[in-house]
What we know:
It holds the Pfam family DUF6332. Keywords: Membrane, Transmembrane, Transmembrane helix. The chain crosses the membrane at residues 12-32, 52-76. By secondary structure, the protein is mostly helical. Helix 1 (7-41) packs antiparallel against helix 2. It contains two helices and no strands. The protein starts with 6 loop residues before the first helix and ends in an 8-residue tail after the last helix. The chain has one domain (7-77). The chain has helices at 7-41, 46-76.
Amino acid sequence: MGRRRTQADRDAITIEIGYAFVSACFAAALAFGAVYGPALAFSLPPSTRGTLAVAGGILAAAVFLLRITHVLLGFARRPENDGR
């Protein structure tokens, strides 16, 4: 059997999940803005705006998932989080 997690361990996990979520949202918003921003700055045809919106959404989703994975796997790999 493994040891039970302390309240400090549970709090650290909660904080790390919150940090991963907020930083992933921020990174995804930046990625979407970088792709879709020119559609707002210039007068582009509606088909181009739609294409940029879809491309920005796909990129934002990918960035979000990669950021969440990167942060949480990095937290799990720390020696003090080995569960012993």
